[in-house]
Design a protein that fits this description.
Strands 5-4-1-2-3-7-6 form a seven-stranded antiparallel sheet, covered by helices on one side. Strands 8-9-10-13-12-11 form a six-stranded antiparallel barrel. The chain has 276 residues and is α+β, with helices and mostly antiparallel strands. The chain folds into three domains: 47-81; 88-164, Thrombin, subunit H, CATH 2.40.10.10; 171-263, Trypsin-like serine proteases (Thrombin, subunit H), CATH 2.40.10. It is built from three helices and 13 strands, in the order ααβββββββββββββα. The chain is rod-shaped and about 130 Å long.
């Protein structure tokens, strides 16, 4: 049966409506896809940014940890500059310091190698025929004379055994005002410690060499040959003399000169350097 006109119009309208709905759905699906794609890209970008920030945060934490480690070291050094906290340095240094005793005099020395080489002032040995070293455990040990440098007032001895020893620091790095300690046997009082600062460097000695540290750390007879030690526990000088009649005017031969003197003596007597 043939369709009437109004039936055709209804069918055509319905078909158009279906087409329009399909087009709208397609457009909606496309827009939804675009939105999903944009959201995905945004999320991906945010994840990438978050990972980058996490990496930056991790690097920052590592840098902070390293900085804190350096601060710990610096704080330990700062603590060591205070009188109450030099005790750790002193505790480590004392076993390497010895009393030098002859049959006519007494002074101080300190061990510079683990096999018992000892340095002191040459004038401590003048007039003596026998030499002993008395360690922190009060053991009296025979000391063999190796050699000396009369101009720098340095003598090298050897005792048998294995020991703690003190390292020499670079005296070119000494700063005026830094705190130091002197260890020695002033007036026979063994292993006495006095604290002071570096008052000046490159002072001229009686040998006309600008080779001496001036310090206000108390030095008395018996301190000669003992170490002048910095906050790191290293030797920056060997205590040598004080100006009589003046207060807080002690002088120590700078460690770079001391090192050269020790090696020169050792090379001449032993055909070898001991330090450096």
């Amino acid at each position: 049966m043939a369709l009437k006109t109004h039936h055709k119009v209804m069918i055509g309208g319905f078909s158009s409506l279906v087409v329009i709905i399909l087009i709208i759905n397609s457009v909606a699906l496309y827009l939804l896809f675009i939105k999903t794609e944009v959201n995905y890209n945004n999320i991906k970008t945010e994840i990438t940014d978050s990972q980058s920030k996490i990496s930056e945060l991790t690097e920052s934490l590592l840098e902070t940890k390293n900085t804190l480690g350096l601060l710990d070291v610096q704080l330990d050094e700062i603590k060591a500059t205070a009188s109450s906290d030099f005790s750790g340095v002193i505790e480590n240094a004392i076993p390497a310091v010895v009393t030098i005793k002859t049959d006519v005099a007494q002074g101080t020395g300190f061990i510079i190698t683990d096999d018992g080489y000892v340095v002191t002032n040459a004038h401590v040995l003048v007039g003596g025929h026998q030499v002993w070293a008395i360690d922190s455990n009060q053991r009296q040990i025979n000391a063999d004379f190796i050699g000396y440098d009369i101009d720098l007032d340095v003598a090298l001895l050897k005792i048998s055994g294995n020991y703690n020893y003190l390292k020499l620091d670079d005296s070119n790095k000494i700063q005026v005002g830094e705190k130091v300690i002197a260890i020695g046997n002033p007036l026979g009082l063994q292993f006495s410690v006095s604290e002071g600062i570096v008052s000046a460097v490159h002072r001229t000695g009686s040998n006309n060499l600008e080779a001496y540290i001036q310090t206000d750390a108390a030095l008395n007879p018996g301190n000669s040959g003992g170490p002048l030690i910095n906050k790191e526990g290293k030797v920056i000088g060997i205590n040598n003399f004080k100006v009589s009649g003046g207060e807080s005017l002690g002088f120590a031969l700078e460690s770079n000169y001391l090192e050269n003197a020790i090696n020169a003596i050792a090379n001449k007597a032993l055909n070898q350097s001991l330090i450096g």
